């Protein structure tokens, strides 16, 4: 039996929390720390901690080795501890507002390698749905624990991050095929993910640099994951057409780079496919990052405060401010941002923006695995070497300019070859070649927001 909906924010309110009633904002802010599972936390789904300022980290130049400002948006204060909760909420909210979905009517399915699945379980808990997360069976144990904490069930597929295609196949065969029983928050293919990141994350990227350098975004850098986060680059390019959008991949699995496949350790970034919602023609550069650099770099930031201060010259307050802030995918993005600044020859007035999707709290087991590989906890010499190699030593190798040759067309063909297997019409996929397709989907937000407001009654 279906039940009334639990109300949540519009896209506009996620972009600018000040549009919410003051009393509601006050209750939401209190609940974020006091009661994570209070449904009012839905109104904390924004980059601004339900206030006015985007949470950002401006990395010290002693760590990056480049003149440009490397700015990291921190997603750790979203409810559930990751910004992935945003597209999970947006997809479910659109289903309720536009398709009449109600709690109790169907089970919510979240295909994921971790953070989106956590977000799916969390949003379903707050809104009163049963949730099943489909994900690989060899991810960090912290991810499974958090999904279960929110009442989510697990349907595990074989493999690791590199085997997300098996998760996609299970999702379509077992759940998409039964629309009367399940609603699938299909992050790799449904456009609420694109809309959330273009409208909400894109604006946060711009706001994060208003008072830095020249106030512009020279480049936006992110590993694709589902492809949603890169949509923030569409917003940036709508303001500054010469801004550069950079996608990152593991060196160990360079699928977009050259059609390669393989296993890697960077939890939180998708591979072995071009996701349906990736606007490939708006991506300018593609870079590879070594997976071990991301894990070692994470450990250097987490455990090497004294080393960063005494051996690299980082200010102590800046070094302490990096503790607990990064997982492997966030470090991957930082390395890519440094490579971007170096490759483009950016100066002190230029800003490169990237994302830390989550934080260290879901990766202690990854650190333990690193210790086993290197024979124990790292020494100061090792931490210094890792920091210098991952950050100061970020190379200019393995960078592909997608605007040269016919790389965009190649990626578009890869997209069509995959997604026609899952029932998408070739003509629909061809429409994605044009920016008009993406702009039209983005332009739906005001109408969707009206439907959300009408449904909640205020």
Structural category is alpha/beta
The poorly predicted ranges are none
Overall pLDDT, averaged? 94
Q: DSSP helix count?
A: 20
- Total beta strand runs: 11
Q: Which oligomeric state applies?
A: single chain
Q: Note the gap between the termini.
A: 25 Å
CATH architecture of the largest domain: 3-Layer(aba) Sandwich
> What is the alpha-carbon Rg in Å?
21 Å
CATH fold topology of the largest domain:
Rossmann fold
Shape: globular
Task: Supply the number of structural domains.
Answer: 3
Please estimate the helix content: 40-55%
Determine the strand fraction and express it as a percent band: 5-15%
Give your account of this protein's structure.
The chain is an alpha/beta fold. It has 3 domains: 15-44, no CATH class; 56-79 and 192-401, 3-Layer(aba) Sandwich (Rossmann fold); 85-186, 3-Layer(aba) Sandwich (Rossmann fold). It is built from 20 helices and 11 strands. The chain has helices at 11-15, 22-34, 61-64, 85-99, 115-127, 141-149, 164-176, 192-207, 232-239, 255-258, 291-303, 305-312, 316-320, 328-344, 364-374, 380-392, 407-419, 426-431, 435-442, 445-456, and strands spanning 56-58, 69-74, 107-111, 131-136, 153-157, 182-184, 219-222, 244-250, 285-289, 351-356, 399-401. The strands form 2 sheets. The protein has a 7-stranded mixed beta sheet with strand order 1-2-10-7-8-9-11. It is globular.
